[in-house]
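Researcher: Go.
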Amino acid sequence: MSTDTAHDQDAVPAHRYTAALAGSIEQRWQQHWEEHGTYHAPNPVGPLSTGKPVPDDKLFVQDMFPYPSGAGLHVGHPLGFIGTDVFARYHRMNGRNVLHTMGFDAFGLPAEQYAVQTGQHPRTTTETNIETYLRQIRRLGLGHDERRRISTIDEGYYKWTQWIFLQVFNSWYDADAGRARPIDELIAQFADGSRPTPDGRPWAELSGTEQQAVLGEHRLAYLSEAPVNWCPGLGTVLANEEVTADGRSERGNFPVFRRSLRQWMMRITAYSDRLIDDLERLDWPEKVKAMQRNWIGRSHGARVRFAVGDESIEVFTTRPDTLFGATYAVLAPEHDLVDRIVPDEWPADVDPRWTEGAATPAEAVAAYRRAASTKSELDRQENRDKTGVFTGAYAVNPVNGARVPVFVADYVLMGYGTGAIMAVPGQDQRDWDFATKFGLPVVRTVRPSDGFEGEAFTGEGPAINSAFLDGMGVDDAKKTIIGWLEEHGHGRGTVQYKLRDWLFSRQRYWGEPFPVVYDSDGAPIALPDSMLPVVLPEVDDYSPRTFDPEDANSEPSPPLSRATEWTEVELDLGDGPKTYRRDTNTMPNWAGSCWYQLRYVDPTDDERFVGRENERYWLGPRTTEHGAADPGGVDLYIGGVEHAVLHLLYSRFWQKVLFDLGHVSGDEPYRRLFNQGYVQAYAYTDSRGTYVPADQVVEEDGKFFFEGREVNREYGKMGKSLKNVVTPDEMAETYGADTFRFYEMSMGPMDVSRPWATKDVVGAQRFLQRLWRNLVDENTGELRVTDEEPSEESLRALHRAVAGVREDYESLRYNTAGAKLIELNNHITKTYGGTAGTPRTIAEGVVQMLAPLSPHIAEELWSRLGHGESLAHGPFPRPDERYLVVDTVEYPIQVGGKVRSRVVVAAGASQDEVRAAALADEKIAELVGTATPRKVIVVPNRLVNIVL
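Model: Structure:
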């Protein structure tokens, strides 16, 4: 250490609020909170109850389930966590019973991949990561009820995940009643004949296998041959998000093929209308609601049948009014009708562009299907270069008898509609592109608007070239053609959805086992509750069996398939011991995160997944103004917008099933949703485009250098790959956790992404140091607080701050709350910095308001102010209306466009009085002199502008 540095260290007052002092204060108060159960939220009944009545005024605040990554946290991760903590602390200080905790979404692919690489059990890795995560978030002083902490990998948790799966499996959706009902009620209807079996035979005459097959057509969880993304090189099925646009795996860059495999599915489509309609009842961002509506994709239209010999192609169209313009039809490559309509030879007049040079239609279709199977759905949808091949078959347009060729093309997907389309190139750009490439006719059926010079016209207008529809507007034409189709037996009006049933199987080890076994006929049998949880077995190899990357016909062989002693099991399920086979797939990680809010409520209940009275208290519907139907659910749910569709949609589906079956009191999981922004940071690349450590880059004269070489600066999301990570541990060590919290909340609005700048953290530190200095003598450590009565000006400053900060906390405007506290502290410094101390009334008010943002320093100061109880439960100050009344207004006075002086007048002063006061001001009078101002403009309550 240099002499100067040593001297500077010695010069620091002994009781200054430094990072070291902050760290000791923070550690001490965190220990105090833990020892005293400060953040324990009592339940009405059960082990987490105090035995006393709970307050009616409760608040359930929840963060989106974090995954415990081995990389730990960077400063972007806690943004939402601190945000919920501030909100929870504010309301707890106002007397509410606040439930706030955090668990871990701990099953999933990353831990399994690490296990494959190292041979270490995924549980070992995951639990180590959780401990790292907990150490980091505890240092931030988050006010969690740790008794409620859960992890999806806990056997006591996934026992109930499996139980919920069985509730879904043992249910069916009664469309007439508009809700799920137990499968036993459906069986009773089949048995008593009130509901006929598909082939009309009495239920009792069907074999057990046949009965199970019939029930499988109705169950909300069912087995199906589903199109999936099969990656032989990885030996697993991939989600769409794990496949690149060119049809290869993100991990390993292996080919991915679309093929059908027997998988568990969830019949979420049964709830399509409720999932859309109930969005109106939720306090969610409109952006998220729109994303869910678009994902579900409800559209009104018609199903139309095009005859192909003895077969028929059924298409769904939202524009049946354009039927007269359908000049060809297209089937998805996976459509099962393709094989039945392909003839042995090409028609004599076939266009060579349609055949791909193949000798026969079957040869052309097989080659095309093979090529299409290597493309992702995203690539198939977005690729402008349309490809396809003629099947050799023709269909008949039902409205005019026209002979239309039937193609196979990958821009049509089995996952939407019927997997077939009628192509109307005059009204659809994709169809226009395809028709242009293959020389197919174009017939416009809607008159384009004047001046239209494009290709396909997708707007509205009167019908043309459409026989009895000509001249009609779109709505009338739709109604007329649907009536005609129904009258002539060629189709019917219907509603279609983009939403597909939820693929629920994964060929992985690290997930929840399915609580079913298969009998000798392959029928799934639900295990009784007494056999839950089904626990994962120990295996030697965590990787699925891999295959030749080009072997599209290979079959999945998940890790569990090698655990033969576990897979083949003898059980007595009520009809004597029999040998059964377990499912070797596992559930997706979405399963555990679908319902965790329910387990937070009652994490120790061994008899139910959640106690009825506790669930109703924390999550049940509440009485609302005007009798509006409240959906129930978490009071505030904060997380990233990237989960807007899948996680939130799946959670809503499970909640609605549980509600229909009477297990929960509300039909929505999350009453209010808030999406926080992201923390972004500068990253730097060298001349090769390689990222260099951002913390080692030096700025000189507006340029940036790493190890003496100039580098390029760019802006992006903070992360390991960009080498621009800053950890909360570093911030807490260098500045203190309270400083980090205050800075992160002050960077900008919670819902907006914001840039990280470590150098700016010092501003938050200086604020806390000044506040500390206003209340504590830095040299002696004695309290600098007096019992003198504050001036009226100080009381006005205090109560204006109280009113504004309360409003900001309630609206999650933490940046403006912080700004108001800084402004109030500046007033304290200016008014009392040179005196014996700060009046107690002012000191206590600012400490109370600071507590949600920076709880440790607030607790310390509150204690030093002589209070024996923790500030965590309040009180939070309330504004005195007397001091919010504005008696005077200060007007800046501009002359020549610059502010030259200011004048204070009575709040109710007229414009003439303000004008006179401005001109009488000494500085202004000197500037104006003897000249007569050309204009004196008064902007009420804002400014005076004098034009000479």
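Model: Residues 792-810 form the longest helix (19 residues).
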